[in-house]
Amino acid sequence: RVHGGEYSVQLIAMNFSLYDTLPQSNRRQFDEDDALDQTSIPPPPLFWSDSKDSFDTLVIAVGRAASGFARTAFGVSNTTPITATIVIPSISMKGNRLTSHIADELCVVFDVTDTSSPSHRIGLVLCQYSRIPDDSIPLLAQLIQSNLPCKRAVIYAALPEHTVHAEDLLSCRMLATDVWRQDANAMKPLKVPFLEPPTVVDGLAAALLTLFQLHCVRSVAFVAVQLRESHFSSFLAWNVAHTQLFGRALAEQTIRETATILDVLTYSQTAQLYV
After folding, report:
1. Long-range contact list for 162-166, CB < 8 A, 24+ apart?
2. What is the distance of C-alpha 123 from the center of its chain?
3. For residues 64 and 108, what is the distance between their CA atoms, to the nearest angstrom?
4. How far apart are CA 115 and CA 113, in angstroms?
5. Contact 86, 173 (CB under 8 A)
6. What is 171-228 written as a DSSP string?
7. HSE on the CB side for 114, CA within 13 Å?
8. Which residues contact 273 (CB under 8 A, 6 or more apart)?
9. What is this structure's pTM?
10. Is 153 helix (H, G, I), strand (E, B) or coil?
């Protein structure tokens, strides 16, 4: 769990040494047909479709809502080539598409480097799971941190409305590792307030921040509140932070359209649980 205000981390029952021993043979060239059609043999956790290179900036969207925003913010479509796919053995791949889709229960990586600045490589990791099993969180965090080296990391995450202790539920908050907070150039463009205690960030976002803190990676997490009614307000909150950091603002109409798609998807999946 990661608390707001002064940066503090509490690591609970996470032994990462087990995952450091993953053999290199677990990584191989990505083959979509093979990856998605095999049902009897568990797939290795990481598939690469391109050479394994480091990124200058790694953007990680935790959850379907944050993934929906990040896909739109960085112009990812269903036809954008996938750089890598991370597989959690405990989550079935049944029903996933051969092309990238926001409805897939999958973690996918894209190279979204801006063509105007090709020397600064940006990797986008979309953790599109509606829910990540608790025992899979350390593995997924370790796979991301160890296989996608970067100079800085930006995390987008959402907190359920009932877990936030604040009067303003529409603004974005942030958490940052020590090396980010001590970097004046990194902090200067951000006018986003820090997450107020006693609100706590847990799950994958907390695990990633913990790893980046331990490895002295400049990292910041932008946290939005997920209201029950719609994704629209959380998208607006992330857009403020995204604009300040990357200088790219999404039009409100674009945000509304993407949020509506996620609202419909969430409603339909919830309805199926009661059928």
Report:
1. 163/199, 163/200, 164/199, 164/225, 165/196, 165/197, 165/198, 165/199, 166/196, 166/199
2. 11
3. 12
4. 6
5. no
6. S-EEEE-HHHHT-HHHHTT--PPBPPTT-EE-HHHHHHHHHHHHTT-EEEEEEEEE-S
7. 10
8. none
9. 0.80
10. strand
Structure tokens at 83: 């750089």
From first to last of its 275 residues, the chain has per-residue pLDDT tens of 555 554 333 332 233 333 333 334 433 333 343 444 444 445 556 777 766 678 999 999 999 899 999 999 999 987 888 888 888 877 777 767 666 777 788 899 999 998 888 999 999 999 988 888 888 899 899 889 888 889 999 999 999 888 888 778 888 999 999 999 999 998 988 999 999 888 889 999 999 999 999 999 999 999 999 877 678 999 999 999 999 999 988 999 998 888 888 877 776 665 444 44
For 130, the token pair is 């509606």
